[in-house]
Structure formats: structure tokens, C-alpha cells
Request: fold
Amino acid sequence: MSIEVTVNGKRHTVLYPADTPLLSVLRDELGLTGTKYGCGEGQCGACTVLIGNSPRRSCQIPVSAAASQPITTIEGLEQNGILHPVQQAFIDAGAFQCAYCTSGMIMSSVALLRQTPSPSPTEIAKSLQGNICRCGTHPRVIEAVSHAATALGKERS
Amino acid sequence: MSSAHHRFDHHVTPAQAPIEPERYEFFAPPAHHFHLARRDFFKLLGAGVAVFASAKSAVASEQETPASSHGFHNENLPNDITAWLHVGEDGTVTAFTGKAEIGQNIRTELAQTVADELRVPFASVRMVMADTALTPFDAGTFGSRTTPTMTPQLRRVANAARDILVGVAAKEWSVSPDTLQCANAKVTNPANGVSLTYAELARGKALARNLPAEDPVTAPSEWTVAGKSIPKVDARAFVTGAHQYTPDMTRPGMLCGKVLRPPSFGATLASYDDSAAKSLPGVVTVRDGNFVAVAAPTEHQAAQALAAIRAQWNESPAKVSNANLFAQIKEKASAKSDERHREEQGSVESALTAAQHRLDATYTVAFIAHAPLEPRAALAEWTRDTNGEKLTVWTGTQRPFAVRDELAATFRVPESSVRVIVPDTGSAYGGKHTGDAALEAARLARAAGHPVKIVWTREEEFTWAYFRPAGVIEIKSAMAPNATLTAWEFHNYHSGASGIDTPYVVPNQRTEFHSVDPPILRSGSYRGLAATANHFARESHMDDLAHAAGVNPFDLRMKNLKEPRLRNVLEAAAKSFGWPAQKSQAGRGFGLAVANDKGSYVATCAEVAVDRSSGSVKVVRLVEAFECGAIVNPDGLRNQVVGAMIQGLGGALFESIEFENGRMTNARFSRYRVPRFADVPEIEVVLLNRKDIPSAGAGETPIMAVAPAIGNAIFNATGTRLRSLPLVPRALKT
Reply:
């Protein structure tokens, strides 16, 4: 069926069965491959995107269910050549090794900071519990999100 | 090494050597063919200066030719080249190595090394890695070998390139090269302050040199770019989603492939009907022996086509189950040990008989999975030109040249017609030595006449990759009244021999590895591989001996250890941890363990909190001291060490493949628990920087002492000795 989605501020009309996972449409149809497949059961968080302001596992969301709200993927964070503070903080903290989980980690973190602007390390850990990093960079990810919270706070003030 | 699953019937494939879980330790590089000529090299990269490093330092030769001449002394490069480097007319430095970037940040470390030795800014160095058409032959990225073998090679080529550039400047200025200095991509004459940039010196040249033997390179104490914490190269591409891993790549006309997997390990295809699948639009099906696969324009269509295939399988009578796993291992293991791993000193029998303190114990480790977040994937494309058929495969593998050879043998094409390219990969941990997805995609692409991409599902990745082998370890030991070891007998069955030799001083010892041939299940490398199992057993056992002797576990180790590097890390970890620690709360316990392997040394201290009512164990704190010689990138190293510690938590506490009747029953992240944020304890890392010792690799050893330190802490908290990994698969209930 024909479905309209808004991704990173752009409207797209796609022809897909309604139950196709949003992940497939993003990657295969729109070429937005920054969103990763990791498990297909919503357990690893590599496919996390924002639907509205909510972090959602795009492998679990049918494309039809994602049509009503704007979708943001990792490709949509950078604005006018300037990285989002969370992206910058991941670089500064070296919060990755293979970086396959990084898109999902960043999207989950962006969602957290929209809801909780100054999270404690425990709150960060809790909100990222559904994101798997097999390389074991967890302490750096927490550090990066803390730094990003500070940077975003400064931007606001 | 693990053999591939697919043997395509209509191709003759070489007989498989017996599978050895740790073959990389005995790896001898195969003869290989090298097809890139010098002329091609400059055609590819433009004019400039090039240096080629040969593995055999003794057979050095030197040839320099003017840019105008095509008459190179030796048109083809020698076969034993291990690295090369090019300085272009714009000053860009390109270094080539067959090593792959799999998340260990080696791309950054190698670029640092080149920049340091060549005296150029870090940003001007580009690494071309793991591309069988462009990079020198390399056996693979494993065994913690990149730092000890590739950094010296690249230093030597960079050093020689610097020599050439100095030579060009000296000629230009008619001065002795000895008087000139290099810094910041320039050669300077200190006598008059005149300088020329490397770009200016390389302009219009086509100078090539084979490396002279054993050029002296910059000592760690003189490093300026190496030894610093430089952030990951291309970090921006990773945080913006721009980097393309294999699953992200496409080619014009590309189809998506899917493979029909058997219902259980060892099943063979009995009957097959693809008529329904073939009738779907755009679908190609392939049956070749037990290989059944489909390709279709989209992933969704491929999945539909796969579901439409009717197949019946004959299942193997040898069905592995967790219930009988260790019994099977003991039953099938050869009573005779592997000769290469048989050590004997003194008389173990008489020392055991005479002993006052005697301790015998058996330990087991489970099969576990690497579970790299990027599953196995490959994109294969066949093309035809005047020279015949060519196959190009993009795939995340640690052994691109081995995968190239495997493809060439399978499809009966010359190695020179196959190109394997490894995009920086979403991790491997020893799990991506083989070319399974590459073979599958290439087989489908050949049938379809289109490029085909295969991305394994998570379930396939868990089930059809290879496992870290399970094992049984038996130890008999004896100790004198003064707590010195007198006898040590150690047998490892099935899991492997790395890290099998005790670092403790024991006058009477016997150490043996008993292989199972073929292994119970498809088994292969894993970060640290058997060294984790062997250290777990040994260090748990040492803890029991300390308890039996009434000696502090730290003191017992210091008493029996001679190796100063190991003693140093143990002391550093204990000091940082505050050993011996006082228990602040009920249910808390402390443990320590040491390990050494692959030229590096580690000690880990753990604090655990055990809740006896729920049977849960939480690792509260880990302190690790690590030493691997001169540190190339401190922050990169710290990242590796912490990563290994956290990954080690999984194998220590809960990772285990569950089998029933030849099927894996927990091939999902919802059923196979890996460490997550809530599992991560407070972590402290102490890095000992030994600038007087050549750098060793660091990807593996930091995982090895984690499990025994935790097991020892659980014993300290509860008095219960757990002798199986994982330690707390379900719960530690009273």
C-alpha cells in the first residue's frame, strides 16, 4: 500500500505492505543505512529511531504505524554541518569501538535528554538498558551522555 | 580454525584439514601470489615515493628509478611483502596493510605509528586496509598480532620513506643527508634553515625502494605522535551513520539473498521442491548439495521465497544436548594428548603421592557465542572483462586473504580473479575468521547473474557461526607446608591450549591438551580463546590452595610467581584495589586472579555482592592492572581493556549456548544474555607503560583474569566454590 512518512523533515511516499518493519523502509527504500539491524526482536537497540520524541525500535514498528508522526534517524541529527551535542560527546569521550551500536545509542540518548535534561549516571544506564554494546564501551557512553547533557544545558541558557 | 558449512557439490574442493580450534597459533603463511606491479602501483596512486617492506629482513634489495623510466629492475613485487607506503605529490601519505579494522581501533594506531616515524601530521596519513587487490598479503587480524608485527613493519617503511626524501633533498642541495632533519612533513637543512616539504620532494618522482634490513626505528621514548591518545579515525562517519558496514552497501541491480538453514546441526537435505518459490516474481533459487538459497529484489521478497521452499532433512543421529555435553567431551577426547601441547618436568606422580596438601578438581566451560552486533554479511558481484571472470566480495572478515582463497578454490577461479574488501567491521572478537556469508553470496550471485547481498539474521549468527569451544579441565596439585607448589598436573579436554602453561614455579608438572576430532560442534577462535578457560581453572584452583593453606590469595601467588612482569601487575592491581579489603557488608566478597598470554600481563581484582535469598550475584567493582610493553595509544588501550573486562563479565556470569537434541534453543538476545548497562560495575584500570619493552597486542589478555577473579570473590563471599563457566547461569541459591 502507499504510505506517507516524514523522515528527518522530508516527506516520502512509499509503496510497501503495511506490516513491513519501519527499519526495512528506512534502509532499503530511503537508503538511510545509519539505522542498523542487530536482532529483529527489539532486544539490542541498534535500530532505534525517534518517532516524535520517543525512542522506538524500528525493527518492531510497522511502517504504517510510524506514518502519523515525524521520524528522526541518526542522519537527521546533524544540522548545517554541526553535529548534535550527543554526537559530539560520543566523539569526545571515544564512546565506541566498532561503533555498530552507536547510532542506536545516540538516538536513545537524544530521546532521554529531551525528556530528562540532566540525568544521573544511574538514570542514563537505566534508559540505555535496552541498547547492547558488545565491545563494552558502557562507561564511556554514560560519560558521553553526561557531557552532552551539560553541553545542551549551556545551549539552552 | 573452523571449516565452512557449505561444500558445493559441483565444485571440487580441497579436502578439509582436521579442525583445530586454535590453529592460528601454529599458523604458517601460505604461499601467495602477488599481482600488483610497481608500475600499477604508481598508476594507482600517482607519482611520489614508495617503500615496500619485506617480511624477510635478510633479503633486502634497493632499486630507485627516475620518473621517466618504465624500466624497473624488477617489475613484480616480491611475494613476501608485508606493508607498503606511498608519499604523494600533494604530501598525502598512504599506508597499506592487510590488517582489518574490527573495532579495535587499529586503523588509528597504525596511522599514528606511520605519522610518528615519517614525521608528518597525523591527519595527513591515510590507511588502506584489508583489500586483497590493494594491500599486501596478510594471514589475518587475530592473536593480538597487529601491534607486535604490523607496527614495526610500518615503522620500517615510514623510516625508509623518510630516508628517500632526505636523499632527494640532499641531492638537491648538494649536502650530506646526515646533516638534514625531518619534522612536520618537511626536510630542513639546519645549517641555513632552508626546507622543502615532502610534497615538493615527491613531485614528479616515481621512486620505489624495497626495504633494507632492520633499519633502526624511533624508540618509544622518542615518540611524538605515537604514545598519545588520538581519537578514532573517521569518528564523525560513525556518529552520523555515514560509515557503510557491509550490510549497508548496495550495487546496481543487487538482489537480497537468504539461505535455508537445516533444522539441526549436521542435518542433510532429503528432498526439495522450489516450484512455488520460483514462481514468485524476480526470484532465483539455488540448490547445491545441502545448500539451498534464494535471491530476490527485496529482503521481504527473499523471505517470502524462502518460506515457499519445501524441504525435508535427514537429521544427524549425534544430537548434542547440554545434559550430556561434558560427558561427550570426555568420552570423545583422545586419551593421548596433542604432542605440541605436552609439557613435563620432574615427577608429578611421586610429588603427588608424597604431598601433605593435595587438591584435585574438575572445571568446565560452556560453549559461548561471539554475538558481534554486525552479523555476518557479504555482498558479492561477478563481472566479466577481457581477462575473464572476476569476483568482488565485500564482507566483514578477519581474514580477507583466506576468504579470497576459499572463494577461488570453491569457484575454481584463479586467486587473482577474486577481490575481497573488508569495510571497517561491526566487531568480530575472533568470530569472523571464515567466509561463510561470502561463499553464500557469491554462489547466489553467480546463479542470479546479479550482485547479491546476504545479511545473516541474529538467529543465524548465533546458530550457524562457530562457537567458542566448551571444555573440561582437570587439575591435580600438591603443596608443601610452606605453601609452595610441589606438583601440578593439568589436562584440558576440547577447549584448547592457549594459556595452558602455568606461570607459577612448580618443580613437578605435567600439562596436556586433549583435542576432540572433530569437535563436538563447529568451534573456532574467540577473544583469548582457551586462555580464558585455562586461566579460570588455574586461578580458581590457586585460590582453593590458598584457602587450604590458610594463606592470603595474594601472598600465595607472590610466593609462587617468579615472572617480574606478572608480579608487577598483581601488585599494581592489589594496591589500587586496596587488597586485602575489609568486608563492609554481609554478602560481599573479594577475589583476585592473574593471567599472561601473547606477551602481555594482567591482574584483576573483583568485589561481588551475593544475595543468598535470590541467588543473584552482582559484580560491584573491578580493578585491573595491565601491561603490554610500550603503549601506542593510551586511550585506545584503556578502551580495549575496559571492553574486554565488560565482555568477560558475560562469559564469567551468564553466557552459555543451550542445546537440545542437536538444536540451539537460545539463539536470540532475549534468551542469550549478554552484559548490559546494569551489569557494568565500577571499573578502574591501571596501565603500566613499559617503554623499554616492544609493544604487544592488547585485544585479548585483558579478558582472561575476569572470570576467575569473580569466581574467587564469590567463594570469598559464600564459601561456595563454583567450578563451571558461566558461574551463575541461573542463580546461586542456598
Notes: Chain B is about 25% helix and 25% strand. The domain at 322-368+467-725 of chain B is CATH 3.30.365.10 (Aldehyde Oxidoreductase; domain 4). Chain B touches chain A through 56 residues (CB under 8 Å).
